[in-house]
Amino acid sequence: MKKLTSLSATIMFVLALLIISSPKTNSQSLSDKQITDYKNVANQFVRKALEDRKGYFLLKELTDIGPRLSGSPNSIKAIHWAEKKMKELGFDKVWLQPVMVPHWERGNIEKAKIVSSKKINNRNLVVRALGGSIATDAKELQGKVISIKSFEELREKQELVKGKIVFYDRPLDQGLYSGGYGGVWNYRVFGADSAAKYGAIGVLLRSITTKYDNNPHTGVVFYADQVKRIPAVSVGYLDSDFLRQALKEEPNLEVNLKLNSKWFEDAPSYNVIGEITGSKYPDEVITVGGHIDSWDLGVGANDDGTGCIQSMEVLDLFKRLNIAPQRTIRCVLFINEENGSRGAEAYGNFADSSIQVTIAAMEADAGSGTPRDFSVDSDSLTIEKIKSWLPILAETGILEVAKGGSGADVGRIKSAKARIGYGPDGQRYFDYHHSDNDQFSIIHPREFELGSAAMATLVFMIDREGL
Ligand SMILES: [Zn+2]
User: N or C: which end of the chain has fewer CB within 10 A?
Assistant: First the structure.
């Protein structure tokens, strides 16, 4: 009897432990009624966003300012526009966080032409300086061109590179579902540096794009301190095809390049921050944001005017539907994501040292396509909890919640319990990315607005259920 009592006590103890330690998933904690109620809220977000198109028209205003490269007068105009808008939308607190940013300008001369060729002398190539490229020395630069497909080939042919212009003829892999950016971006960032080590005098990069056109895509180029800096340009995809063919026929042709881009002293700038203060837990912060700077080609509608406005609209949707958040919902528009991440660094330091706790930080910087997924950087229990809300998120078009990276900006908030990346469909993303193609006209209002609704729904779930 005594033995039995002790056995049943042990069983009870083990059972109690199992109950305490078993992961509390939402399928257990949400009743059918709660799920129905939450789905109703999700549907209200969807209806409001789609019917009003308020964010879409705000994006029009932002992009009417023009491109917003860090350090430019336009970037400051956009920052003050956003600050004023957040105040007009009635956020509880709106402020600017000062941060010094790099300042580079492409100038007004970007010319490349094929010269010293028997057949095609003086044929222009459409080029755009890569972001941060130095100008051509004195007036122009001329040399023979060597076509290179990969860093391995560059190493193998290093003896032949000296004194030449390296043409990275490496099209993005169109056969990959994700668009193949992962296999080419490092040639834009590190291509000049790698070629300069072997004595190259300049770099032509086949434009990184999924579109078959001639608008070159820019993006940052990196120079190491110890290596000689050489000018680097992106060449239109069609003109890259032309150059490839021309080099096959005349390997000794020369290209003449002229750029007058320029570096300036670091410039004062700001992150734009606005919040609705939590009614119950004001010191628990849910951050949602995008980056207010853009490249200087196009108007940064997709990258990342979209993410900025969707983030602002998350807060505005709460207000439009008269939902008072229990936790503080904070919109952060980060400056300088494209060429330095100084805004992310400044905000990350601020958030990590604050007495307020960031329970979740969501980033929208993947374009304006139809909602697809949320990628969550957190512990497995937290990820499981967010996953269990999928039936509710699905009302906005979200198909998946998965473990993964968040984004370049919120990734810097190390103290956040969860860092989340909003993932819209990306099939057209690299048609526009960092190029003149990134215009307001390419934004589809329904796809864009569903993004605001999807983000608002996840923010709402975190606000009500915690993490
Ligand atoms: Zn971006």
Answer: N
Boundary of a domain, candidates 196, 229, 260: 260
Residues with CB under 5 A from ligand 1 (ion): 303-304, 365
Gap from CA of 425 to ligand 1 centroid (Å): 15
Residues spanned by the domain of 55: 26-104+265-465
Q: What one-character-per-residue DSSP string does 129-194 give? A: EPBTPPPPSSS-EEEEEEEE-SHHHHHHTHHHHTTSEEEE-----TTSTT-SGGGTHHHHHHHHHH
Distance in Å, CA 134 to ligand 1 centroid: 23
297 CA from centroid of ligand 1 (Å): 13
Which pLDDT tens digit goes with each residue over 227-266? 999 999 999 999 999 999 999 999 999 999 999 999 999 9
What does pTM read for this prediction?
0.93
From ligand 1's centre to the CA of 12, what distance in Å?
54
Could you tell me if 204 and 116 lie in one domain?
yes
The pLDDT of residue 14: 47
What is the distance in A from the centroid of ligand 1 to the CA of 336?
10
